[in-house]
From TrEMBL:
This is Glycoside hydrolase family 15 protein. GO terms for molecular function: hydrolase activity. InterPro entries: 6-hairpin_glycosidase_sf, 6hp_glycosidase-like_sf, GH15-like, Trehalase-like_N. Keywords: Hydrolase. SUPFAM superfamilies: Six-hairpin glycosidases. The lineage of its organism: Bacteria, Bacillati, Actinomycetota, Actinomycetes, Kitasatosporales.
Amino acid sequence: MGADIEDYAMLGDLQTAALVGLDGSIDWLCLPRFDSPACFAALLDDESAGRWQIAPARGGPATARRYRDDSLVLETEWHTPEGTVRVTDCMPPRGEAADVVRLVEGVSGRVPMRMDLRLRFDYGSVIPWVTRPEEYTCAVAGPDSVWLSTPVPTEGRNLTTQSEFTVSAGERVPFVLVYQPSHRPPPKAVDAAWAIGDTERFWKAWMSVCRYDGDWPEAVRRSLVILKALTYAPTGGILAAATTSLPEQLGGPRNWDYRYCWLRDATFTLQALLGTGFIEEAYAWREWLLRAAAGSPGDLQIMYGLDGTRRIPEWTADWLGGYQGASPVRIGNAAVGQFQLDVWGQVLDCLHLARESGLAMNETAWNLQRALMDYLEGHWNDPDNSLWEVRGERRHFVHSKVMAWAGLDRAVHAVRHQGMPGPADRWAALRDHIHDEVCAQGYDPERNTFTQFYGSRGLDAALLLLPRVGFLPWEDLRMRGTVEAVRRELAVDGLLVRYRPDADGGVDGLPGDEGAFLACTFWLADALHGTGRTAEARALFERLLGLRNDVGLLSEEYDTALGRQIGNTPQAFSMVGLVNTARNLSGAPIGTAGRRADVPEAWSLEDLAP
Ligand SMILES: OC[C@H]1O[C@H](O[C@H]2O[C@H](CO)[C@@H](O)[C@H](O)[C@H]2O)[C@H](O)[C@@H](O)[C@@H]1O
């Protein structure tokens, strides 16, 4: 059975990620990519679905755990009656092959240890053939092979590879697991200690670009590392989260696959990265976007695979019991075919921010924006599925219309202030028309609040984003009323849910319920700050910091009754919320560019423009 979600730390090599529990077990790993089938899927069932544990033989959770500085090198320590042992885990940024490096070190005494490796390819369904060529243990099934090397003796027992050994103070025992397509020869040997040092150096160099100088610097830097770890380096695509089907309600059916690139989630991530000086990621993402979006603007999807793949069919892995019994386990995501109007505005807003941050404009990028504008002009008035990807009836969602307004606004700005060609007057007229329509049809004067969709009785936490995109200022009485109403109706023990699923006769078309949405709660902190209640905003922000796990990770949602993280983890939306709100509370309004990063010697901003 998967451990509590907050028990997991993340390892990653910018192409895939692993989750390691406090018990020293890697319960989730997809190889060779984030969206490949998992070879360790104990997270979504039990150990029979694959896992790799290295821990003291007597078992039990670790005593202490930390990442080394601003890296993804994880140190887990157990203080046992026999002595203290440390396991250092990392995934070195990808060279030729994906590898997981684990180094066991005796700190004091003599600690009996146990290693248990169960490789189960294709989401736990395939037990590989295991052979022992040369110094390796090699597991092969279909297209995949995984090679374990370690100096300690290993043995096959009950379809697992196991080892018992004792580690004394000052002694080091390495374990290296390397993935290869199964037709390839054995991988090159990896020196564990060198690989760990190299991984640390990589992250240190990456963080040296950071220009965040506000409050809560450690929490912000940790979040930035996680966001970087959710980017797929070969293409620049940005993932929503590293997992699939961690439930939005324990035991419930709201379980989704987040291992893909949502344009909305990616643009939020870029706001956080650009606001803290990371312009290289913005360039890589823009190029990813241009490739993914190539084709007719009407065919723009709200999400893609890591390399821009369009088909992400949703299916269920029925052999997996689900995280702590929450089924189904879904692979792929049917929301790929939805119409979510906000995405057009979100992308235009993000490209605007990239320009403001110093990313040189190029003709292809502007051509894409012109194409997005053409589509927006023709479709802004269509009902949609909204940013919450409701699977119920399409509606005229207020947030979606506001984002259409924002897209038009950014395009008008590009023409009038940045010298780009386009029909600015026509766009400005439509922008103003949408503003009027939203204020007339998306606002309930009796309750003094904007509503979830035109004519709705329900509310939506996304309404808190209206001032952020410049639709209305916080001082506007309608906005103040909206903040109050959202807080009154959507707060659960002080945290916000996205909306009430049962409002308006069941707006999202889904069974079950869900927890408080952490990104929305960060937006509430921004709203409190925006409306002058900064002390309350800071208190709420610090409460949210307290919901992170011991190594700074946040999943998507929080169950306030059980006091547990729920939903996929680590989730970009939540980590972005932390960064943006920390910036906001430190005096840098969200959606503004950070101090321009120093340009590394190897390249200049001009070099970046193709
Ligand atoms: O609520 C139903 C929907 O839930 C998921 O969407 C959520 O996650 C997305 C990725 O982070 C995010 O962009 C979206 O705003 C969230 O509502 C799921 O991916 C959908 O398939 C599902 O319909």
